[in-house]
Amino acid sequence: MIMDNPLIPVYARVIKIIEETPDVKSFQVEFLDKEIGERFDYLPGQCAQVSLVGVGESHFVINSTPTRKGPLQFSVKKAGKHTAALHEIEEGAVVGVRGPFGNSFPVEEMKGKNVLIVGGGIGLAPLRTLINYMLDKREEYGKITIVYGARTSKDLVYKEELDEWAAKPGVDLHLTIDIEEEGWTKNVGVVPVVLEKIAPSPEKTVTVTCGPPIMIKFTLQSLTKLGFKPEDIITTLEMRMKCGIGKCGRCNIGHIYVCQDGPVFTYAQLKSLPQEF
Ligand SMILES: Cc1cc2nc3c(=O)[nH]c(=O)nc-3n(C[C@H](O)[C@H](O)[C@H](O)COP(=O)(O)OP(=O)(O)OC[C@H]3O[C@@H](n4cnc5c(N)ncnc54)[C@H](O)[C@@H]3O)c2cc1C
Ligand code: FES
């Protein structure tokens, strides 16, 4: 833990706000204390609690990449009171940050393998970190196949970056939207259907998936049909969280604490847990 007390937020200034979609904004933040900024290190998949004084605190995945020094980025989908209040702040505002929390995608074990990324909507946030991390260490990973979808083209996040990724050698990007739209020339259909159509090989391939629960449910079924083994499928859970440090008991599933043992799990691990998430 970088912070002296993991329960006390550290102030950070919002230096840039990007409107990603009608209900998602990305916030780039820098710690007021530069020394904390220097020490703050994290891995793809890790999260932090972001707070607004007098309003609340929420868990968000850090979707910048540790391979590029600079501000931390969080993407926030408007869901309720706190996220709506975050959508109202302007550049220059000060927020609180605690973290990083939780485990990360197994980037060391994934080395030398092909990586299949399957994302839906705001679920691309943790996958963005992983994709940029692997692109910055390109020789350490095999082919990167990305299947990403949203309800409409307006709901796709990181639009400019999607084009940049598609242009990189060894990256195969498949975009999809749920319903036909005028001018849309890419896939139409929900993510699991497009995934089965593309039918990527499970050979030497690890899959990392994140998105709405319904997408994850059918994606896991499709991956199983395609021959992917549960231990080669990785996902990240979004249980409700409070303390982030295994103290409050808000996030447990059976004997595990998602804030500490997760949020990243293999499908094999999830299958062994009580089905309460
Ligand atoms: C590990 C982790 C990573 C996350 N990463 C992101 C992220 O990168 N970007 C992002 O926008 N959100 C992320 N979330 C979800 C985010 O924390 C919640 O949307 C936020 O706390 C909602 O706060 P609120 O006060 O605006 O909404 P509330 O008033 O608390 O709730 C509004 C609505 O959202 C639902 N909701 C609230 N929290 C969650 C949750 N954790 N999971 C599912 N539904 C929820 C409630 O049931 C309710 O319907 C993450 C959550 C976790 C646990
Ligand atoms: S969030 Fe408090 S124990 Fe996990």
Helix content: 10-25%
Beta-strand fraction estimate: 25-35%
Q: What CATH architecture of the largest domain would you give?
A: 3-Layer(aba) Sandwich
N-to-C SSE string, H for helix and E for strand: EEHEEEHEEHEHEEHEHEEEHEH
Bound ligands, named by name, code or SMILES: flavin-adenine dinucleotide, FE2/S2 (inorganic) cluster
Identify the quaternary structure here.
single chain
In a few lines, what is going on in this structure?
The chain is of the alpha/beta class. It has helices spanning 34-39, 81-88, 124-136, 159-166, 191-198, 213-225, 258-261, 267-271; strands at residues 10-21, 24-31, 47-52, 56-61, 72-77, 94-101, 114-120, 144-150, 171-177, 187-188, 205-210, 233-236, 252-253, 256-257, 264-266. The longest helix has 13 residues, at 124-136.
Q: Please, could you describe this protein's structure?
A:
This protein has 277 residues and is an alpha/beta fold. The protein folds into two domains: 10-101, Translation factors (Elongation Factor Tu (Ef-tu), domain 3); 114-236, 3-Layer(aba) Sandwich (Rossmann fold). The chain contains eight helices and 15 strands. It has helices at residues 34-39, 81-88, 124-136, 159-166, 191-198, 213-225, 258-261, 267-271; strands spanning 10-21, 24-31, 47-52, 56-61, 72-77, 94-101, 114-120, 144-150, 171-177, 187-188, 205-210, 233-236, 252-253, 256-257, 264-266. The strands form three sheets. A seven-stranded mixed β-sheet has the order 10-9-8-7-11-12-15, sandwiched between helices. α5 (191-198) packs parallel to α6. The longest helix has 13 residues, at 124-136. The radius of gyration is 18 Å and the shape is globular. The model has no long low-confidence stretch (mean pLDDT 94). Flavin-adenine dinucleotide (FAD) is lined by residues 47, 56, 58-61, 75-77, 79-83, 122, 125, 238-241, 263.
